[in-house]
Amino acid sequence: MSLASVVPSVRRVSPVFARPTVSSCRWACMRHFPLGVRHFTRSGARRLPVVASAAGDSAVGDAFVTEGSTNVKFPRELTVPGYTGSLVILGTGYRDKFFVKEYAAAFYMDYSLSIDTEQWKQKIGMESFDSNSVFDAIFKAQVVKSLSINLVRDVDGKTFVNALNDVIARQIKEPNVEEESSLSTFQNIFLGRNLKQGTSIYLTWLEPSRMLISISENQDPCQVDAEIKSATVNYALYNGFFGNSPVSPSLRSSTSKLLEALLMK
Question: What is the CATH number of the domain that holds 98?
Answer without folding.
Answer: 3.50.70.10
